[in-house]
């Protein structure tokens, strides 16, 4: 898709990213005299429909987010030769891109705290407007600034570069904004279709039990673990293996949830428990599950101070039963965020 962008922002600087939806270009907006990001959506019905949902949600969010510091700001949009083009403020890299360029080395715990706080504030704000994001992941959370500093990395791991660079990048600012509202939906009864990118998908979604606001909170829990360790918590592409990984890290799934699974998920359950390892597709799959540590051990391997508070918070965010899971607002009141006097103990 190489075409002229017919607007004040008609000077295309560079390509910022690409996805199944289309691509994002960095452009110069002559009217506002600023760099902007223009998302150009493929001229296919389902992507156009998602883009129109995104525009509606962005306008709704902007109406209520007066300071514009929670979600990415929409500047404008237009339809050009069957391509919906959405103009956004220009932000820094996604948390995923930052991790990738940093050789998947973890963020310092105080930065995780600040990012987690802002992420939960954004989720609480959306939930208050009866909106569910449904696709929270590090790719959809952008740092506001691209600037970073290099600090010594004492935890040199097998993933450290071979050139002996014992430094890792740390963002200069913890400010973030959430993006990509193409899958966002208003709360309704009986939402049953599959949502979320696999690694961040809640158990109730996989089991076909219907989902609501808590599915966003589960995703936040997975994201916080990833920021602390540098790696996705559940690296899998298959439902039964995913559920077995959850049990390995978090303990057994509750009986009452396994009893209520929908017909698509029945095959994952036998005699009231997960059909694992009997139902595993391969020996490799069993090995992948067995090598995962319990949640508390995983966090203690990577986090020095605040580990106890963080583990307790994560156990609340990653509760299996969505009705028992912390809300975004409840999570913000957790000691992990409120215990200021212990901040740098």
TrEMBL record:
Keywords: ATP-binding, Kinase, Nucleotide-binding, Serine/threonine-protein kinase, Transferase
Gene Ontology cellular-component annotations: nucleus
PROSITE patterns registered for this protein in UniProt: PROTEIN_KINASE_DOM, PROTEIN_KINASE_ST
Residue runs in coiled coils: none
Keyword tRNA-binding: no
CDD domains to which the protein is assigned, alphabetical: PKc_CLK
Domain Protein kinase, first and last residues per copy: 10-337
Catalytic reaction list: L-threonyl-[protein] + ATP = O-phospho-L-threonyl-[protein] + ADP + H(+); L-tyrosyl-[protein] + ATP = O-phospho-L-tyrosyl-[protein] + ADP + H(+); L-seryl-[protein] + ATP = O-phospho-L-seryl-[protein] + ADP + H(+)
Pfam family, one: Pkinase
SUPFAM superfamilies on file: Protein kinase-like (PK-like) (SSF56112)
InterPro entries: CLK_kinases, Kinase-like_dom_sf, Prot_kinase_dom, Ser/Thr_kinase_AS
Assigned EC number: 2.7.12.1
GO MF: ATP binding; protein serine/threonine kinase activity; protein serine/threonine/tyrosine kinase activity
KW ATP-binding (keyword) present: yes
Enzyme class: transferase
PANTHER family: SERINE/THREONINE-PROTEIN KINASE DOA-RELATED, SERINE_THREONINE-PROTEIN KINASE AFC2
Protein name: dual-specificity kinase
């Amino acid at each position: 898709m190489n075409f002229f962008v017919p607007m004040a922002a008609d000077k295309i600087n560079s390509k910022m990213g690409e996805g199944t939806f289309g691509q994002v270009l960095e452009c110069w907006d002559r009217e506002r005299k600023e760099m902007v990001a223009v998302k150009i959506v493929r001229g296919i019905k389902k992507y156009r429909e998602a883009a129109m949902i995104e525009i509606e949600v962005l306008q709704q969010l902007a109406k209520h987010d007066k300071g514009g510091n929670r979600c990415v700001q929409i500047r404008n949009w237009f339809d050009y030769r069957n391509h919906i083009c959405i103009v956004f403020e220009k932000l820094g890299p996604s948390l995923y891109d930052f991790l990738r360029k940093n050789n998947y080395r973890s963020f310092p715990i105080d930065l995780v705290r600040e990012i987690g706080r802002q992420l939960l504030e954004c989720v609480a704000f959306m939930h208050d407007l009866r909106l569910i994001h449904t696709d929270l992941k590090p790719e959809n959370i952008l740092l506001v600034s691209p600037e970073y500093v290099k600090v010594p990395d004492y935890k040199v791991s097998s993933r450290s570069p071979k050139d002996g660079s014992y430094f890792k990048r740390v963002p200069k600012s913890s400010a973030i904004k959430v993006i990509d509202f193409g899958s966002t939906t208003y709360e309704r009864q009986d939402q049953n279709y599959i949502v979320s990118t696999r690694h961040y998908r809640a158990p109730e979604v996989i089991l076909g039990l219907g989902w609501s606001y808590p599915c966003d909170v589960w995703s936040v829990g997975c994201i916080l673990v990833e920021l602390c360790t540098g790696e996705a918590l559940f690296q899998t592409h298959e439902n039964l293996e995913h559920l077995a990984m959850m049990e390995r890290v978090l303990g057994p799934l509750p009986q009452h949830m396994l009893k209520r699974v929908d017909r698509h998920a029945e095959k994952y359950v036998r005699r009231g428990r997960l059909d694992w390892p009997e139902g595993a597709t391969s020996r490799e799959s069993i090995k992948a599950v067995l090598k995962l540590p319990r949640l508390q051990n995983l966090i203690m391997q990577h986090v020095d101070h605040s580990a106890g508070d963080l583990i307790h918070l994560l156990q609340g965010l990653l509760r299996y039963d969505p009705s028992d899971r912390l809300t975004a607002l409840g999570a913000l009141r957790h000691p992990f965020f409120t215990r200021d006097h212990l901040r740098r103990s």
